[in-house]
Specification:
Layout: H1 2-37, E1 41-46, H2 61-67, E2 75-78, E3 83-86, E4 89-94, E5 100-105, H3 119-132, H4 136-140, H5 148-152, E6 162-166, E7 169-173, H6 181-184, E8 208-214, E9 218-223, E10 236-241, H7 245-253, E11 259-260, H8 265-273, E12 281-294, H9 305-313, H10 317-324, E13 329-331, H11 354-363, E14 373-380, H12 383-397, E15 401-408, H13 410-418, E16 424-430, H14 437-444, H15 460-471, H16 475-492, E17 495-507, E18 511-512, E19 528-529, E20 531-532, E21 539-540
Helix pairs in contact: 9-11, 14-15, 15-16
Length: 548
């Protein structure tokens, strides 16, 4: 009896010692892990090639995302409020006629190389980006400024309408009023950098500094300790570039990534329903539309708004999204996407109504039945687009419309669109700036025909409203005018509005304060890695740095 008790006491003491030792080992490892969070890279998976991170030449989303760690604009967009906020500027004001804009810069902001941000540096950066950009959508945002066309044509070496009043003040003078210009200032082409730097990427003012590009597989950025908003939370960001989305997803699942920027369509449904990813999956509608444009001066669409409306009513967008696109998009009913300032969810648009489509065709003088009406549809040759178009054709067949497909190589397709040779074609429109002006003025003002108005749509009443909106300095009144223009555009149906794209992202379990806005951008200054609580089992976020 005595021996048994002694044995039990020995075993109990041994187990207690093991438990205490395990506890201290666990705490030691946890402490090391916690300390490492202050220095280890934040690993972000990007599933597309990156050709540039310079403001003048970034084109694709992934390039803008990386560049946004290095560069900033004078203003930034708050997706929650739909309003502009100061970033490098502290305040701004239009003249009463909308033809002049005064911008006052914040003081004591420096580029990564230590040079001071001045109005002269802003002017120089903008003019360099204007001269180096090859994207017409970027160039066109400058063209309302006095002197921009003279510089574009090579007659002048500067844009005379960008004027330096003093080191902290810029004056922008427009040929025609343009109160949408402040929203354009959020575009990468207006991000600011030290244009005198000889080696790229040029120094910016952002929360992170470019360190190195390792053979276009890892782009590494380090914290800007002197960032004007305060100390960024992450020490290092490593953008890992993948050419295989499934490989990137596997790396995320194995814990190698803190952020995954895109999810393969064929994996999206599984991710959404898996409880493991409930708190890690991010999704939100983007200011990015997917449509078919009708050339309103070509048959069969010329002078036939009833046919154009009928096609809009004939399409079950939800069925296509669920069947072909894995639920990655949301159905579109009107011209401007949801989430944009002034969006009205109750606006009359186009829902799936095949009976109404048939009635409109009958009203237009078409006799449906065995003899189908024929419409052409062109698109850039891609398996995904083809699958969508085939299902569109099936639905149109059901109301008496046959489709003739014309798939084309992407480069050739873009040229044909620009030459206005496409009778009906696919267009995806990603907002250049977060304002309805970008979806209405750019795509439907007659001055943009052949530039970004690919339907040749010309309605004098719409032109007048869109011009009036750019003269209106009151933000709310400006949105009301834009809404009036949109109602007329939707009624005229120069497009078959199909979908609005959504963002689909995954974040790591220990990532905090990472959100994606409806321009598909991230405020990298806010992002942090959570530290485990050494005194308990729950994680708690690192104490936030105070904004300056």
């Amino acid at each position: 009896m005595f021996n048994s008790t002694k044995k039990l006491l020995f075993i109990g003491t041994l187990l207690l010692l093991i438990a205490v030792l395990a506890f201290f080992i666990h705490k030691h490892k946890l402490a090391i892990y916690t300390a490492n969070l202050d220095t280890r890279p934040f690993n972000a998976g990007i599933c597309s090639p990156v050709n540039s991170v310079e403001p003048a030449t970034v084109i694709e989303h992934q390039e803008r995302l990386i560049a946004s760690t290095i560069y900033e604009g004078l203003l930034c967009y708050d997706a929650k409020s739909g309003e502009l906020q100061p970033r490098l500027a502290r305040k701004w004001k239009y003249s009463s006629d909308g033809k002049t804009l005064i911008i006052h810069l914040k003081e004591n902001i420096k580029f990564h190389n230590g040079k001071k941000l001045t109005a002269g540096a802003v002017k120089s950066a903008w003019e360099k980006s204007f001269s180096e950009s090859t994207e017409w959508s970027n160039i066109s945002m400058f063209l309302s400024i006095v002197g921009s066309n003279a510089m574009l044509d090579g007659y002048k070496q500067e844009i005379s309408g960008i004027q330096v009043v003093n080191d902290a003040t810029l004056k922008i003078v427009f040929d025609q009023p343009n109160t949408a210009f402040t929203y354009m200032l959020t575009s990468p082409v207006f991000w600011v950098y030290d244009s005198s730097a000889e080696n790229g990427p040029a120094p910016g003012t952002g929360p992170y500094l470019f360190k190195e590009n390792q053979e276009n597989e890892d782009i590494i950025l380090v914290r800007n300790d002197k960032y004007h908003r305060g100390m960024p939370r992450l020490a290092v960001i490593n953008f890992k570039i993948y050419d295989d989305e499934l490989k990137a997803l596997d790396d995320y699942k194995s814990g190698k990534l803190d952020y995954l920027d895109s999810i393969p369509f064929n994996q999206l449904k599984e991710i959404k329903k898996n409880p493991q990813y409930k708190e890690l999956y991010l999704s939100r509608p983007l200011l990015n539309t997917y449509s078919l444009v009708f050339h309103v001066n070509k048959q069969p669409f010329a002078d036939d708004y009833l046919l154009r409306r009928a096609l809009n009513y004939a399409i079950d967008r939800k069925a296509i999204n669920d069947t072909i696109l894995g639920g990655a998009y949301i159905p579109a009913r009107v011209a401007a996407p949801s989430g944009i300032a002034g969006y009205k969810s109750n606006m009359k648009g186009y829902d799936y109504d095949p009976e109404k489509a048939r009635q409109l065709l009958e009203d237009a003088g078409y006799i449906t039945g065995d003899q189908l009406i024929s419409v052409p549809i062109s698109y850039d040759n891609d398996d995904g687009h083809q699958a969508v178009m085939e299902m569109v054709a099936q639905q149109l067949n059901q109301v008496g419309i046959a489709v003739e497909f014309s798939p084309m190589d992407w480069d050739y397709y873009k040229k044909q669109l620009g030459k206005m040779q496409i009778t009906c074609g696919r267009v995806s429109w990603l907002a250049d700036y977060p304002d309805p002006d970008n979806f209405l003025y750019s795509m439907f003002h007659s001055s943009k025909i052949g530039v970004s108005n690919f339907s040749a749509y010309h309605n004098p009443q719409v032109d007048k409203l869109l011009d009036s909106s750019r003269k209106q300095v009151n933000p709310q009144k400006r949105l009301e005018i834009l809404h009036q223009a949109e109602e007329i555009i939707v009624d005229d149906a120069p497009c078959l509005w199909l979908f609005q794209k959504c963002a689909h992202k995954l974040i790591g379990e220990n990532v905090s304060s990472l959100s994606v806005d409806n321009m598909e951008m991230i405020d990298w200054y806010q992002v942090e890695l959570r530290k485990p609580d050494l005194d308990g089992d729950q994680d708690k976020p690192v104490e936030k740095q105070k904004k300056v």
